[in-house]
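Predict structure. Chain length: 716.
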Amino acid sequence: MDSLGCLYILLSAHLCFCTPVPSFLSVEKAVQFLGRTRRAYNAFEELKKGNLERECVEELCNLEESREYFENDPETNYFYPRYLNCLTQYSGPSPATLNFHAGWRDCVNDIPNQCVPSPCHPVGTENCIDLSADYRCLCKNGWRGKNCATDINECEEGKASCDHVCINTDGSFHCRCNVGYHTELDLRSCTDDDECLRDPTLCGPNIVCENHPGYYTCRCPFGYSYNKIEQTCTDVDECRDLMPCEEICINTIGGYQCLCDGRAGHILSSDLKTCKPVMECINLELETLSTHLYIGPDAETNPVFLLTVKVPPNTSEVLAFDLRTFDPEGLVLFAERVRNTHSREDQRSEDDWLALSIKYGRLQLQASGPTGGGFIRGGPIVNDGFWTTIQLERTQKMIKVYVAQQRVLTLKLKNKPGVEAVKVYVGGLPPSAVIKDQMNPRLDACLRQWSWMGKEEPSSPLPPPGLGRLPCLQYVEPGTYFPGGHLAAFRLPNMNAPHHINPAWVIEIKMEFRAASETGVLLSVVNYNRDVLFSLALSNTVNNVLKTPLQSVTLSMGSNTILQSIPIETGPWDGAPAFCDDLWHRVYLHLSNHGVYLLVDGINATTPPRSVLSPAQAVPNTMSTAQLQLNTSATETDPITRGLVQLGAWLNETLSAYFGGIPNYVNLLDTPVSTFFHGCLREVSVNERLLNFDDSIGLAEGIRSHSCPMVEDYGE
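Prediction complete.
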């Protein structure tokens, strides 16, 4: 049977290929050729399942024969067109040569394999599995889809679990940390980089490096900013950049300071930035009566008013009034007689006048006339602050003075007839008058119930025009009243010991004050260069916790506060500073080339730690210069030492002492307190010399040299 089969095949092959054929068959002829009747090898061959190698590689098969192998239409329909393509590609001069083509067998055998060529994405596929007329792509992690061609975005689907930034990639993802962090071994977690620990010199020398999550900062002290290029700390000009102050801003090294114009009545608020008006903390008795006349003169000692009175023939000249004063010295009135002559020169040549004044608290009478002159002082004390009735009578033979209807002074002086009128100058001298006894004509006094030769109303005010009459305070006590905004100036003479290599000098200042406002300059000493050598002031601060006012007496040298009394927190009523208590407070200041000492109400105020005095050396009420020794370790950089050295150098010159504030020509920045003092001073002395404010070189109008208004509730 086998031999016959082989013969059958050989004969068939000979019959088929014995005639010449073209080198390549067309597809149509190939189909016809392949569509021939299939020949069985043996009786059972047709009953066997087809074999692709035998049916279509070793032989040429047609569509039906390929279906026999696949036994289904989808695979057959997929296979056969591709089979024809292989036939076209690999057929030689004769179909018999197909078996000898190396690529023919592979081309046909690969057609049924759905994974050759692989339909799966080359990157996203792990493996391709051939199925019946189908395939399956096994995707790698991060891919999906029929052909594993779709990338899974793990970042959007929340599968990445990155701490900071997730970056999607083809088939995967990447976690990235923010600047200042590094990635941990799990490639997802981020940990802060401690740059300061890694490089302690990162910010530069002596500059603090502070690590923060993800970054670091270079911290400079308050008021400084960091310069990254130079790695240094530079001062911030807050005044220029922030403009934090309402009025005056002073840039300082590492900060700034806000100031207010104290001379305008402003002080710094508790926020240390805005300004507020100075608080008047005591109400004073400023009530006046129209029937009372204040005769205190102005700075030039001009009279308050001039009254010209006609004198009838053979009539005594009588001047009567009530006087109240605490002033120990000053001119009450000056009366000049005018005679019946033809020329003003003849009138003046007679030299006929009288002057009633107070000296050492008693009445004093001077007179001059055609027949001579005289001088007398006596009677009771009249500067006790009580109303005193005074009458002055001039007859043809004498001048008599009465106090409370009792004659106290008599000056015999014959008068010549021909008096036409009397000019009465009250509270000052006329410009041409010259009196015999040298005295300060300024008098702080009040008049009432006056009668000038029968007239009861003063008239004809002297220059300056419009000065008129000033009111007289009804309730007063001894003291010098500063209403605020006004100064009284004195000259301090040379206080250095002459011809001494290291001259010793001492300035002792004593005073009592009663404040009507919360702050103000009691005294400032200024040189001709307009430098404030030292100042004594009532200063106020605020308790940072309770926000209540604190008051103290401070001593400053230039712009540095060097001594401060113990701050007192509460006054007699809520919200009032401590010194606003209706009471008089004592201040004692000692300055010398040995040191400085300050007492307020008998309590040592030498409190700063760098003070030149040891607190153990402080004596509450008495002190000797031996106790005052400069700290030998102090240098001229110490503000006290520097201030004392500067003050001692200027004592070779005449200095100006201003009570009640600082002069307008002084820079506001040269002293910590610039507010005018509102209140009263008394018992003011410099080096044991009791000051009379009538003697000041510039007594501003409004300052009452010897009368201080009482507190409003006085007498209740």
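Summary: DSSP finds ten helices and 44 strands in the chain.
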